[in-house]
Design brief:
With 324 residues, the chain is α/β, with parallel strands linked by helices. The chain has one domain: Rossmann fold, CATH 3.40.50.300. It contains 15 helices and five strands. Strands 2-3-1-4-5 form a five-stranded parallel sheet, sandwiched between helices. The two termini are 32 Å apart.
Amino acid sequence: MTDLQARPDPMPNARFLILLSPPRSFSSVVSTMIGQHPELYGFPELHLFIGDSVQEVLDREYRAGNHFGPPGLLRAIAELEFGVQTTATITRAIGWLAERRHWTTKDMMDHLRERVAPRIGMEKSPITALKPLGLERAWTFYPTAHFLHLTRHPVSTRRSMDLFLDQRARTEKRRAFDSLLSWYRFHRNILEFTQRLPPGQSLMVKGEDVLSDPERYLPQIAEWLGLRTDAAAIEAMKHPECSPYAYRGPAPAHGGNDGNFMRDPVLRPGRVREPSLSDFFARQSFDWITDEESERLAAAGCQLAPTATLIEDVSALAHRLGYR
């Protein structure tokens, strides 16, 4: 796939599931549901594929405002190493992680997988798909892993992302790019990655379908993974609230999953509506990037494609994912 070489897996007979999606794509609820299968262990967002070493991950998280490390990683360490998630065990997890900052991120991921064996570990961090390098790193570490591509309608994703960013904008700088561009970039990265995998190693599923009809789609995912599909196993997957990571974590590691999901992690029955993409574009005007960002790009010799071209590209990708 690249000039990177796949590294040996110390658990060659152990399977691994990696969920890929943009942010705000139902990834928290869907991954937690899947992770409740009796043969799986659903981790929170570990962020381990954003760097080659634990130190590199800690440095990046520090710049992002997570001064002690990824909250999901700290919660997983507290849960698996110390048996419970409390402020005291999170504090111990911070020290435990700092002592292993020299580890590779693969060392850390392998350690966590060994702690949950014989269950199959499941990792989901939307940031993995932000850049192709994150996806290549995941494959390089785990060339036989299963990759689940989770999608959500671009209009719904944009609305959710804009709401999230508007809340953060009270204390942080307003976003520079329209959220549709982010949706497009993430899914393009994932598709370019998964299309190079052998048949059967990746599966694409619409989040709306999983949430609207779990009785139909959860067994299909379990069958793809070669797991139990009996009624008890599927029923367990319908209870994300039973995950140790379904609720807000203790200070200073509150995150690890979407905040809205952690406030109410119970699966709510009912059809998830998909808006009309054509209607949305017909009534929506776009300023794809801020004036400040336009000036910066122009100074760098870059220019954004015309609005009509961007709409055509987003629409084509949405159609490819099964949205209209």
